[in-house]
Amino acid sequence: MTTVFGAIAREDTQPIEIDHLFGLSDIVECIGQSQFADRLLSYFDGHIGADHCSIFQLKDYELTEVSSACRADAEPVIQSDLTSYEVKRQLSVTSESSVRVDFINVPFSGDCNRYLQKRQRVLLSVRKDGTAYCVRILRPHDGGGAVDALLETANCIAGTAMSIVAKHVDLTTRRPNLTPALCSLPEIEGCILASTNLSKREGEVCARILYGLSSCGIALDLGIGKESVMTYRKRAYQRLGIGSQRELLMWYLTLWSDYRETPELARTELN
């Protein structure tokens, strides 16, 4: 069994001590970037001590690990002990936008035989606009500091830290997947033909340029001459007001971003 050391629900309106603002700017600068979890780990390590840091999102009853970081000298974590049930249970006693802070002891890597060598797990969780965000921090059991003091510190920094985490997760999870945009010829061609006034051949040629085919490859694929390919490309570039393949790519990515947000029914009507 785990031992609960304490739990605090923090309202975002509580003030933050100046000392606890140290390091926040480093986290803010990395919102949406791959090094965000490393900066977050460094921030928590500086204030309460931390070996591991994992960021989770709970949405539509599904708990997803967004990113994580680990100190180079720390023992690795085999798997997460966090469940969607636990997150929902923790947040059930807090109001919207309040941060729940919990300390418990957990064994190393889920090995009960090593339970005497415990870690302390710090769980920060908050619910905003129907979505829950969690940060799980693992620190050595003998990492120093009285539990009451650690709880007070964690409670003090939790509100601002979790607001930053929520922004990062939203930005990361909403980032479009560009794989179908550039790796599926039917996707590229369908987007161009449905969303522009290019002729069918002009659209087909542009789609194959974006797909990576050479002029000869396009000619073979469409069953037309290489000179015809050059003519269709020139006409398309003139219509679009562009002059290079790079400009074609930039134009297409903007077009695809709008196209993917179009409801499926509207897409069908366009086609």
From TrEMBL:
<dbReference type="InterPro" id="IPR016032">
    <property type="entry name" value="Sig_transdc_resp-reg_C-effctor"/>
</dbReference>
<dbReference type="InterPro" id="IPR000792">
    <property type="entry name" value="Tscrpt_reg_LuxR_C"/>
</dbReference>
<dbReference type="InterPro" id="IPR036388">
    <property type="entry name" value="WH-like_DNA-bd_sf"/>
</dbReference>
<protein>
    <submittedName>
        <fullName>Helix-turn-helix transcriptional regulator</fullName>
    </submittedName>
</protein>
<feature type="domain" description="HTH luxR-type">
    <location>
        <begin position="212"/>
        <end position="239"/>
    </location>
</feature>
<dbReference type="Pfam" id="PF00196">
    <property type="entry name" value="GerE"/>
</dbReference>
